[in-house]
Amino acid sequence: MKNSQPSHQPSISIVLPCYNPGEGWCSDLLRNMACLREKLPEHFIQFIISNDGSTRLERHQLCMLTSFGNVVFLDNPRNEGKGSAIRKGACRACGDIIIYTDLDFPFGTDAIVEMVSVFENNPGCSFVYGNRSMEYFQKLPLKRKLFSKMLRITNRLTLSQKVADTQAGIKGLRKEILPIVQQVKTNTFVFEIELIHKLLREGIGIEKIEVCANPSIVFTDFNMKVLFREAVNFTRIITAGLL
């Protein structure tokens, strides 16, 4: 199931952070990878699974994934956070375009196809982010909904009027700006706020696509410890960005 790399199309690396995925994750991932290759048959696609200290991955599942072709499995034994897993995965990317999303493809494969199209049709764009629909926010558990609303308001005040939603779990970038990604120090899920701060400072071309969550996605809530940790990280990023 390998796909060769045509010379006239940009190659693509898909980075997938992984932390203790739910039951059936392996078969779902294989289905999504196959679907993406069907939708982008002329592109070379590399998949990078960046394990972030998972404790319940089985060897036969990893063998199934790596036998799919052009799949890299990074086994990071310590749980450091989503930001760390994405940065480590991106370091192994060989694609001209690097897209990261969650392991369960919460926005489907069409969003990735649309991102690739943005890069191909807009040479001045080097970073694309997913902008979540209002329907998405209505489905979130209460604490996540409140936290997300707070982030959107603060992002508009401190980042840019054009960038409000930094937390959708899908982003894309050209490999040329990977050094900026590697400068990000935040390891947890608010690392993207620090990343976008840096991109805006560097004058990097940024575009967005509208995304909707798959109907099958089940949203989990944050506990108070996680919320406090992310609030501290968020405050540090914003404070540093304003200095």
Condensed summary:
With 243 residues, the protein is of the alpha/beta class.
What does this structure look like?
This is Glycosyltransferase family 2 protein. InterPro entries: Glyco_trans_2-like (IPR001173), Nucleotide-diphossugar_trans (IPR029044). The chain is an alpha/beta fold. It has a single domain, classed as Spore Coat Polysaccharide Biosynthesis Protein SpsA, Chain A, CATH 3.90.550. The protein is 42% helix and 18% strand. The protein has nine helices and seven strands, in the order E-H-E-H-E-H-E-H-E-H-H-E-H-H-E-H. Helix 8 runs parallel beside helix 9. The model has no long low-confidence stretch (mean pLDDT 85).
Q: What is the top-level CATH class? A: Alpha Beta
Which fold name corresponds to the CATH topology?
Spore Coat Polysaccharide Biosynthesis Protein SpsA, Chain A
Which structural class best describes the helix and strand composition? alpha/beta
SSE succession? EHEHEHEHEHHEHHEH
The backbone outline, from C-alpha atoms, is globular
So what's the oligomer here?
single chain
Q: How would a textbook summarize the main sheet?
A: 7 strands, mixed
What is the percentage of strand-forming residues?
15-25%
| CATH homologous superfamily caption | Spore Coat Polysaccharide Biosynthesis Protein SpsA, Chain A
What is the number of strand segments? 7
**Distinct helical segment count:** 9
Per CATH, the architecture is Alpha-Beta Complex
Q: Low-confidence stretches at least 5 residues in length (pLDDT < 50)?
A: none
Q: What level of helicity do the residues show? A: 40-55%
Distance between the termini: 50 Å
Pfam family, one: Glycos_transf_2
Organism: Dyadobacter pollutisoli
Protein name: Glycosyltransferase family 2 protein
Domain Glycosyltransferase 2-like: 13-178
